[in-house]
Structures are given as C-alpha cells and as structure tokens.
Amino acid sequence: MRERAKTEGLAAQLRHPPGGRDGRTMLLTLFVDRTGTGVWAAACVLYFTELSRLTATQIGLLLGLSSVAGIAGTPLAGRLAASYGVRPVLIGCHLLRVAALGAVLCCSAFWPLLALVALATLGDRAARAMEMLYATEVAGERRSAYRALSRTAMNAGYAAGAGLAALGLAVGTPAAYRALVVADVASFLVAAALVASLREPFPTRAADGAAADPAPRPSPWRDAGYLRFVALDAVLTIDDAILNVGLPLWLIHSTRAPHALVPAFLVVNTVVVVLAQLRVSALVHSARQAVRVVPVYGFAILGCCAAAALAHRTGAPAASALLLAAAVLVTLAELVRSVVSWELSVALAPERARPEYLGVAGMAHSTEKAAGPLLLTGAVLATGPLGWLTLGAATTAAAYAQRRYGALRLAALTR
C-alpha cells in the first residue's frame, strides 16, 4: 500500500483513493462543500455591506463572534456521532447551514444575522470534524495519503467558489449578490445528498446491544494528556492566520513591497500545495513518524517569521522576494501540520471513543480561526519585527513540546 501511495500520481490516486467508492464520494463531497464555502468567503463582506447595510465594525463583530460560536461545533458533533453515527450528523450539519444561510436572504438586521451566521459557522466547523472522522474510518492506515487527496479536492473547491464569486461580484447587482448566497445554499444541499449515499463506517451506541460495548467510554474532557495535545495543536495552526491576515497586512502597512503582491500569496499557497502535498504526506505513515516531524512545522514558521521581519526595512524588490519566501515557508508548514495533526489526533485517541476525541481535537483549528487574527493584529504586527521573531520562536518551542508530549503519550498507550 505504501509503495502504491508513493508511486502513483495525483490523478491516479484521485480515481482510486483509499476507501474505494465511499472515499471517492467523500472527496466529491469535499469539493462541492468547499465550492460553496469559497463563494461565501469571497462574497459575504460585500453582501453584508451592500444589501444588509452593516458597518465595517458590525461586520467585524459578526464574523468574529460567529467564529467563537464555531468552537462549540466540533465537540458537539463528536458527541452526537458517538450516539447516532457520522453520516446522520454530517447530513444534519449541511442542512443546518442550508437553513441558516437561506434565512440570511430574508433578513438584514444585525442581531438576527449574527445568530444565523453563528449557526452556519457552528455547522461548518462541526461538518469538518465529521469529514475528518469519516475519512479516518474509511481510509484506515492510508489516512495520510487520503488527507493529501482531500486537500486537493478542497483547494479545487475553494478556487471554483472564488471564481463563481468573482463573476457575481463583477455584476454587482443585488440580484447577483443573492444568487451567490443561493449557490452557496445549493452546494450544501448537494453535499448532504452525497453524504446520504455513503455507508456508516462503524457501529454506534444507538446500534443493537450486540454491537455496544458495556464498558464506560473514556471522556476526552477528563483526559489531561489529550487536552494538552489539543491546546498545543491550536498553537500549531497559526499558519492559517499568518497567510491570510499577517502577511497581507504586514506587506501593506510595514514594507515597501507593492500592494499588488498580496494576491500572489494565495497563488503561491495553491501551487505549493498541489506540487508538494503528496510528497509531504509520504513522510508520515505512523504516529511515531508524525511525532518526529512536528518540529519541522516550528522551523518552517520560524523561517517565515524571520523573512517577514527582514522585509521591514528593505527596498521593494528585496521585500517582495522575502515575503514570497515567507509565503512558501508558511505553506510548507501548513502541509506538515495538515498531515501530522490528523495522524496524531487519531493515534492519541482511544479507538473506542474516537468520535468524541476527534470532536474535541477539532476545537484546535476552530480556536485558531477565532483567536489567530487577533493575535496577529493585536500583538505581532503591533510590535513589528520583534513580534514576528517572538511568534516564530514561540511556535518552534510549542512544536518541540508537542513532540515530547506526543512521544510520552504514545509510549503510555503502547504499554
């Protein structure tokens, strides 16, 4: 299996992914889901500005508070999946997003919109936890290869969604903005229909008594070791905020690089992900390998932060080169994190309580989504190059701490 994963190209693996038919259907589901998400991400600010007439402060508050609400989505979904199965919960997540974003079309007041966007965000974060859990069960030992393929599907979906949004925003009429929201809602309906065609990967507590385990299931909330892993994992997802918030704002406000370079960060990210994700996933085939690779994330972030700091007082060509190098390094960190985090969140969790544990593990990314932009704007960018270097050093230290704690927990689990 490993040799096949290493020698097959991306296209061949997409045709014959781990998990067979169900794995392939889930990849299609991810593409459809992220297409809608890409539409919403690109259009929501203008929609709220032009149609709902919200102020910039109100939009920032709405998106920030809804991100906080999303943190609750993953542990809630994990708890429900343990009782009712992954497939029904994932369908419910998509339908919750359909209802919430469909209702956005019918109101423009701030507080109702806040409640609806918070529900949609909660459903989004919960859906991601269920997608991870489903892929873990279906892909089995080849989950690192499946993670690489899923990132291809997701990136393609984001690109398709951004393209659709660009068309609607170019038209710029209220009807075009509403059509984009309708397209978003439709994507989640299609995703729910695709999930309905999947099989349920494992028995649940709600199954018949023969399938149930009479012993009490361990709780992640009482597992200090796993909670420590999740807390460190939240720190080790800072690459997302660096790429999408930190580098663009730093370029605009603190360097001489041309502002037109900002879109290039996402182009670099997309190209590097496509070219390198399978190679990076080939580095990790076991939890022990994942533990050894964790520090690579810290050093990649440290290099990115050093490049950003050096760009502060250089000329435009040098600043541009340094910031593009930072974008490459943070993307490499993202690739390492996506494989290592998934592998360890599964391997460090008791198999018989995997839904609950992976639900809690999903809080790491949700927490970073809410806190990461605030950290970058409120602390790192405000303190200049020193802030960047401090962030890089702190992330590297967290990576080594994760390596140590991960190794200790693996040793304890194998006794």
TrEMBL record:
It comes from the Bacteria. Pfam families: MFS_1. The keyword rRNA-binding does not apply. The chain crosses the membrane at residues 60-78, 98-122, 152-171, 177-196, 257-278, 290-311, 317-336. It is a multi-pass membrane protein. GO terms for cellular component: plasma membrane. InterPro entries: MFS, MFS_trans_sf, MFS_Transporters. Keywords: Cell membrane, Membrane, Transmembrane, Transmembrane helix, Transport. It is found in: Cell membrane. Gene3D superfamilies: MFS general substrate transporter like domains. Its main location: membrane. GO terms for molecular function: transmembrane transporter activity. PANTHER family: MULTIDRUG RESISTANCE PROTEIN MDTH (PTHR23517:SF2), RESISTANCE PROTEIN MDTM, PUTATIVE-RELATED-RELATED (PTHR23517). This is Putative major facilitator superfamily transporter. It comes from Kitasatospora setae (strain ATCC 33774 / DSM 43861 / JCM 3304 / KCC A-0304 / NBRC 14216 / KM-6054). The lineage of its organism: Bacteria, Bacillati, Actinomycetota, Actinomycetes, Kitasatosporales.
